[in-house]
Structure formats: C-alpha cells, structure tokens
Amino acid sequence: MNVISKSAVTRLNLKPEPHPHPFHVAWVDKTKLPVTERCLVSLKLGTCDEDIYLDLLPMNVAHVLLGRPWLYDHRVQNCGRENTYTFQHEGKSITLRPANPAIKPTKTNITTSSPSQTGKVSGPQLALLSYGEFEKESLETGVVFALVIKEISAAPSYQQPEPLHQLLNEFSDVMPDDLPNELPPMRDIQHAIDLVPGSQLPNLPHYRMNSSERAELNTQIQGLLDKGFIRHSLSPCAVPVLLTPKKDGSWRMCVDSRAINKSQLNIDSLFHDLRICWMSWQVPNGFPRLTFVAVTIRFVLGKVMNGKPHSKP
C-alpha cells in the first residue's frame, strides 16, 4: 500500500476524501488500524512527476511510503547491494539512490584576527546558517528554539534596613551564631519521657561508615562533649547514630530512635489518663486519688506542649 501520514496532510493543507474500499491494516502485534480516507498527492521523484492516491495513516517514521502498488505499476527493480531502485518513466531510466548520510560542513566566520595576520585560525568560531537552509530546517521540524546569551553581572550585596539591623543587634542573645557552652538552668518542673513498664531496652549496633564519615562523626560528638550538651552514658540502652548530608555540603548527625520510640507510652493512653484525671477533679478534697491527678496532669502537659514532646525544659 502507498501511505501518507496525517501530519503531512495537515501541514500541506491537502484535502482527504473517503476511501472507495475501506480496509484495515494489521501490524506485527496484531494491532489493526482502519483505513477510511485517501488523498491525491503530486509527487516528484527525480525527473518523474505524477499524481498518486495515498492512503491516510497515523505514522511518524516517514511522511510518505511507496509500497507494493507503486512498485508494481512502475516495474521497479531493486539492487540490494547498492540499495537503489530503478524504473522507466516516459522512456527514461530513473534511479533512486539513498541519501548521503554525511553531514554537510557549515560555513564558519572567524570573529577574532584574520588568518592572513596570524597564519592560523584561532579563537571561537561562529557557525552561520543561510536563510534557505534555515527555512528548510524550520519547515521540516516545525519547531524553532532561540538561545539568547545574556551577561550576568556580579550579584549586588544585600544590605539590611537600619530598623532590622537595630532589632537584630538588640536581640542578638536570642539568635546567636553558636550556642553557649552550658545547658539551660534547671526549672521548677522537670519533664521526662517514661517507657512502657516491662519493655525491653534496645541495644543496636552502629551503622557502617567510611573513615571520613567516622572522623566527622567523632568531631561532632567531641564538640557536644566539650560544650556539655551530652555526656558519656552507662545506660544499657543504645541507639545508633548516622550522618546525613545537608544542602550546603556539610553533615548533620541524626539519632535513629525508632527502636526506643516503640517502647514509649502511647499518646492516646496519655490523653485517656488526662480525661480520667479531669473527671477526678469533681471529687471532694482529701480523696486519695487527688495527689495522683496533679502529677499526671503535669506530666501530660509536658508531653504535648507546643504540639510536640519535650524531654527538656
């Protein structure tokens, strides 16, 4: 069958007409496509000009495919070694040869010193495209992209407004560049995260890491020890630590507390205790459970303050 793509018909503004004998085309995977339209197209192959009916199909491998009907009508002879097709038209022999895959050299223009002055071509070269070549390429692809190069000057330095600068200086102790080498002072109410009674404490091995990561981890741990934020623990409970990269290329030390979190009290049970304690406030003074009420409420408020658990003031 002789085929023309629907995209070519649309681009060339051809008028399709109903096919006198509609049929289906089956592919290798048994997929069928209906052929219900055809179009009269003027083709030029070398010195051969003719009008031929082509069936319409959606395809993207080519715009026009000349198949068995055209080969039969023109008695085309194929040479497999040279990949040529030869046929007779109006007493003349016409041979169709494959396109040359070689890339045509583009014209170049030297934007620096001329070769007559230097004796050799140096510096950047500018590839130029003629108007005809540009028009041909644009019509064939249908899409044209333009790349515009713009020089970027140095980014201007950001200067803080004077009111903002005074505000930051006034409250510099709230947002210091580094934390002080001591813990916050002791508060009247101390909060703690209790574990489920009878739960087994996890003792997991450390994660594998290379020598550079281990050195970075030791540096961060030593810095926390020097500031007094952490201390050596004798607890049988051990959770592994690992390093995760940050956007600026530095490393953040993280503690994998998933195992110990499973042994903590469930927040739903804490809210349940809070409801029980709220109901217990209605009993007369001196009820033995009243002392338990105050302790439980204070503990629960420490767990849900600011929407997240707090183990330290």
From TrEMBL:
First and last residue of the signal peptide: none
Q: Where is this region: Disordered?
A: 98-122
Which stretches are tagged as biased composition: Polar residues?
A: 106-120
User: What SUPFAM superfamilies does this protein map onto?
Assistant: DNA/RNA polymerases (SSF56672)
Q: Entry's CDD domains? A: retropepsin_like (cd00303)
Q: Which PANTHER family match?
A: RNA-DIRECTED DNA POLYMERASE, ZINC KNUCKLE (CCHC-TYPE) FAMILY PROTEIN
Q: What is this protein called?
A: Transposable element protein
Q: Which organism is it from?
A: Prunus dulcis
